[in-house]
Specification:
The structure is a homodimer.
Chain A lengths: L3 H4 L3 H11 L2 E2 H11 L8 H13 L3 E8 L4 E7 L1 H25 L4
Antiparallel strand pairs in A: 1-3, 2-3
Helix pairs in contact in A: 2-4, 2-5
The first copy, chain A, binds a DNA duplex through helix 1, helix 3, helix 4 and strand 3.
DNA sequence: ACTAACTACTCTGTCTGTCAAAGTAATTTA
DNA sequence: TAAATTACTTTGACAGACAGAGTAGTTAGT
């Protein structure tokens, strides 16, 4: 399991990316993350919904209610134009972050 | 400049790595980091000394006083055996972190 | 028919790492 | 002799992630 301090700051882009691929609702995203990472990373519900709030506040995503399924009604999110730009910039930043940390982490085997 | 939320959680290994190469004192480390990253990342003093405290508390480094230079006496740190093991494990974790985040960040160009 | 498990979202309070700002203090440079 | 630089420390604030609890309807198993 990956530690939360290590993933910190990367959750917004990760979630944004999943919404970018397809409109998503919370529960589905948390399942997707576990699935794609083979359970090496699991997002906690409280964290996920906090991220949604931040993303929506920054107008990077917008929400709408979908069908009622399995009890609660699903709240879907779609990415905005601003969100797409932010995502692209995040990907660039991630490349730079990797470069910088690699500077210090290489050659330890 | 790289954002602190993105680097968060990686500072302990970075600093440990620099101490691993050579015994270091705080001011030197902060200069080294700026230098090696071409000022793309600068550690703040308060942060640096907080990291030292955590590393020392976990017995990953130990300190000794060196020569008095430019006013204040220098406090040097050396890595412990435990610290070396921790560093190796951190490097492994970093590889895994990269893999996981890359899963979500790839194919956005 | 009953209940356990699952789906789905929300809220409150806590913890931790980073930082801004300020302080202490001696040395070197202009 | 004033300003810049070296060098370390402390305090308090902030923000992101999380634990835990709550709400609520549906589906699967016995």
């Amino acid at each position: 399991m990956i530690k939360s301090d290590i993933i910190r700051g990367h959750l917004e882009p990760i979630i944004l990316r999943l919404i970018y691929e397809n409109d998503q609702y919370g529960y589905e995203i948390s399942k997707q993350i576990s699935l794609r990472t083979d359970n090496r990373f699991q997002i906690k519900e409280a964290t996920l919904y906090a991220v949604f709030q931040r993303l929506e506040k920054k107008d990077l995503i917008e929400s709408y209610y979908g069908s009622v399924s399995h009890g609660r009604k699903r709240k879907y999110y779609r990415i905005t134009t601003l969100g797409k730009a932010y995502l692209k910039e995040s990907a660039r930043e991630w490349q730079e972050t990797k470069e910088i940390i690699d500077l210090f982490m290489e050659g330890l085997e």
